[in-house]
Amino acid sequence: MKDLINLTVKDMIDFTALALLYVFVFFRIWKRKGKDILLVNTCMYVYLSFVLYFTLMPIITSIPFVLNHPYTPMNLVPFIDVSAGKGDFLRQVILNIIMTIPFGFLFPLTQNRTVKLGRTIFFCFLMSLGIEILQPLINGFRSSDITDVITNVIGGIIGYGFYIIFRLVVFWILKHLKAGN
């Protein structure tokens, strides 16, 4: 994983674009809806920004070169690195699970209605699949792997479990934050 201290100019261009998008679009919309919605949606936005940083960035400066390298198809054999014992598979599995725990927790909070586990899993799957499909295009040196999708979904399920456990406390906090508007 990248070190936050070692941001490149290319990464800074992406973060600047994300910051401008937040300030001039999302912040204005979410602020009108209340402090509770602003807080939850901002947490999800910051989380997704870091997911982009660790998985796809730099994006904007890579766009002109998307077609300048061969596309390596996704490895569709689950846990092949684990069974072959190659690489740092355990570290990768654990990091992929950890990466999507916040998604499983925050996604239900960003919705206006009660969100079931299946909907959270579906959107966690879509996010993960999107990242895995784009990685070889945006960053020609990155490969995509079905194991990452599986472990990301497991992380989303764990995050949803935390949401179920802590939702009453979180809703209490959000209710009091909203009442302070």
First and last CA, distance: 39 Å
Extended strand count = 0
- Main sheet? none
**What is the number of helices?**
6
Q: Proportion of β residues?
A: under 5%
Q: Helix-strand pattern, N to C? A: HHHHHH
Low-confidence stretches: none
Could you estimate the helical fraction of the residues in percent?
over 70%
Structural class given helices, strands, pairing? mainly alpha
Rg: 18 Å
Mean pLDDT: 90
Shape: flat
Sum up the structure in keywords.
181 residues, 71% helix, 0% strand
General description of the model:
It is a single chain. The chain is an all-alpha fold and 181 residues long. Helix content is 71%, strand content 0%. Helix 5 packs across helix 6 (146-179). The chain starts with 8 loop residues before the first helix and ends with a helix. The mean pLDDT is 90.
Blueprint (SSEs and pairs):
Elements: H1 9-32, H2 35-55, H3 80-84, H4 89-110, H5 117-138, H6 146-179
Helix pairs in contact: 1-2, 2-4, 4-6, 5-6
Would you kindly provide a brief summary of this structure?
The protein is mostly helical and 181 residues long. 71% of the residues lie in helices and 0% in strands. α1 runs antiparallel to α2 (35-55), α2 (35-55) runs antiparallel to α4 (89-110) and α5 (117-138) crosses α6.
